Amino acid sequence: MSVLVDDDTRVVVQGITGGEGKFHAEQMMEYGTNVVAGAVPDKGGQEVSGVPVYDTVHEAVDEENADTSVIFVPPAFAGDAIFESLDSELDLAVAITEGIPTQDMARVNKRLSETETRLIGPNCPGLITPGEAKLGILPGNIFAEGNVGLVSRSGTLTYQVVDSLTNRGIGQTTAIGIGGDPIIGTDFVDALELFEDDPDTDAIVMCGEIGGEDEEEAAAFIDEYVDTPVAGFIAGRTAPPGKRMGHAGAIVSGSGTGTAESKISALNDAGVPVGDTPEEVADHIEEFLA
Amino acid sequence: MKLHEYQAKTVFADAGIPTPDSQLASDVDGVVSAAEEIGYPVAVKAQVQVGGRGKAGGIKLVEDADEAREAADSILGMDLKGYHVDRVLVEEAVDFVNELYVGITMDRGEGKPVAMVSTKGGVNIEEVAEEDPDAIAREHIDPSFGMHPYQARKAVYDAGVDQSVARDVSSVLTTLYQLWDDKDGADAEINPLMVTADDEVIAADAVMNIDEDALFRQPELAEMEEEAAGGDELEQKADEYGFDYVRLDGNVGIIGNGAGLVMTTLDLVDHYGGQPANFLDVGGGAKAARIANALDMVFSDDNVDSVVFNIFGGITRGDEVARGINEALEQFDEIPKPVVVRLAGTNWEEGMEILNEDLVTVEQTLEDAVQRAVEYAGEVNDQ
């Protein structure tokens, strides 16, 4: 079992004719993902690595029954590409693109509240159900099938924690990178809810970082609704206020909201141990599963 | 990207928001002639990107030419919280009876813009938000419709603004939202919005932060960016290279890929008793030349005593990273600062083979690499 993605998922890749889109479409297929179509304006009728390309996402849905899109469209056009996914009534859209203007995402966010489509990202590595399928750019070889759900705001930090788990023989049900932007589709609470409802997920890792209040909200949600044991990690303990630490969303405000201390204490209050190092997170998970 | 006060005021004034008469000056004579033209009293205001300019001596009110000369002399060339002042704004001093606050920002929790109004202007609004949150009226805006006129009125009346100026304040707020929307603002703020004895409103300060991800479609503002940049020399160099870089106070240089992992590396340096000198994210898929540039940047920071390189490859390849590190280090007869490298993920084994181990220390895990770099930095300090 898993959440959101499995080997039945039928994927359309938006931007499949670009360098990144083509490379990662191939990587996804190599991992076993069912990539059924590409969608690129004015490129309909072409084929990329054996995958038929359509001019619009609507056509890809009509012709190939695509139910999920993965978006590798440059930032200036990515907001529009997400709208196209939402208006095509897909089940899931995964936006990998980094650097989408925040006001574009505010408009997307409004549309999201009116549709049934779930959005992951943007500015995220995607998600993977080990042994079945991956949507995005995660390196498949570090993951293993197992019973730990993982949700994270950061890509490479996810790899670091997964590596620690896999090296100890602990596999994953699904790992979701929700992205490092201020406005994202699926947040911690949404992902925690999915894992809590998944009978095969026996423990959850949640990797947060400074900025915003999503981790505090997640802590409150865990306290009330989550019985599955959760271990946490928060990046950015040493970040100075007012400086954007790479991710657009990773910034401690001048008034001190969004600090690592606030997030760690909220999680601790909800009974979630927070590791000082990625290895300590793996220690906690190992204890949960013992 | 934060505009200077004089830039933001120009943008606001062009949109029809009342601002005091002002001129930019960069030498003492320029300040005096600007002041004469505007008419005393005037304020002489340092144009640097730091808060609390007044308390730090960067804003002075002057009554005549002698005072103007004296103020210009002391402010121009001064070091204000680490920023060199090379320009001042000479501005008409406004006689006010009230100071208000108006602002627009993105409420990331709600995922939509919010307009804010308060009668407690002229002080740090974040302190007001903390101590007396009810003193700030908030109105969330649906970005697909923009701010309805009634919402501006509602925010203004909710804040308790006097009826005699409510219409003008609403109009300023409406214009501010349009500017924020048109210019891809992150924050737009007037604090204080002064109210004069005859019920005129005037923007005595102006703050405008632009979403850097949207500069591609704001060419006029992007041109202002060069002027607005200022500040730390290394941070400017990082901009040229296109790195996400933040300079810190410690002596362990840090290079990695991906914001979360680089932040984690900083935290681990601290955890193991060291002090991070910087945050440097080379981004995804960095090639050898980019890696060499990163190392060059961190070496050029005099505070750095050792460097830890932590790469977990997804789309970044270990062999490219190793080539870049060799390339950067082989140009030195003697390695200027010890470098510790940890490679994992895509092509890490190939990378390990390529790495010249005479030039760097290799560690297998993140924890070991950080501890080794902290140890090296400590040894340098003990010498």
Write structural notes for this entry.
The complex is a heterodimer of chains A (290) and B (383). Chain A contains 9 helices and 13 strands. Chain A has 290 residues and is α/β, with parallel strands linked by helices. Chain A has 2 domains: 111 residues, NAD(P)-binding Rossmann-like Domain (Rossmann fold), CATH 3.40.50; 151 residues, Rossmann fold (3-Layer(aba) Sandwich), CATH 3.40.50.261. Chain A has a 7-stranded mixed β-sheet, with helices on both faces. A 6-stranded mixed β-sheet of chain A has the order 9-8-11-10-12-13, with helices on both faces. Chain B is of the alpha+beta class and 383 residues long. Chain B folds into 3 domains: 72 residues, ATP-grasp fold, A domain (Dna Ligase, domain 1), CATH 3.30.1490; 129 residues, D-amino Acid Aminotransferase, Chain A, domain 1, CATH 3.30.470.20; 150 residues, Rossmann fold. In chain B, strands 7, 8, 9, 10, 11 and 12 form a 6-stranded antiparallel β-sheet that branches. Chain B has a 4-stranded antiparallel β-sheet with strand order 1-6-2-3, with helices on one face. In chain B, strands 14-16-17-18 form a 4-stranded parallel β-sheet, sandwiched between helices. Chains A and B meet through helix 4 and helix 5 of A and helix 4 and helix 9 of B.
CATH class of the largest domain in chain B: Alpha Beta
Number of strands of chain B: 18
Distance between the termini of chain B: 41 Å
Please count the helical segments of chain A.
Answer: 9
**If classified by CATH, what would the architecture of the largest domain in chain A be?**
3-Layer(aba) Sandwich
CATH T-level fold name of the largest domain in chain A: Rossmann fold
Read across the widest sheet of chain A, the strand sequence of neighbours is 3-4-2-1-5-6-7
Tally of structural domains of chain A: 2
Largest interface: A-B, 61 and 54 residues
Fraction of residues in helix of chain B: 25-40%
In total, the number of strands of chain A is 13
How confident is the prediction overall: mean pLDDT of chain A?
A: 95
Percent of residues in β-strands of chain A? 15-25%
Query: What is the domain tally of chain B?
Result: 3
Which overall shape of chain A is indicated by the principal axes computed on the Cα atoms?
globular
**Level of helix content of chain A?**
25-40%
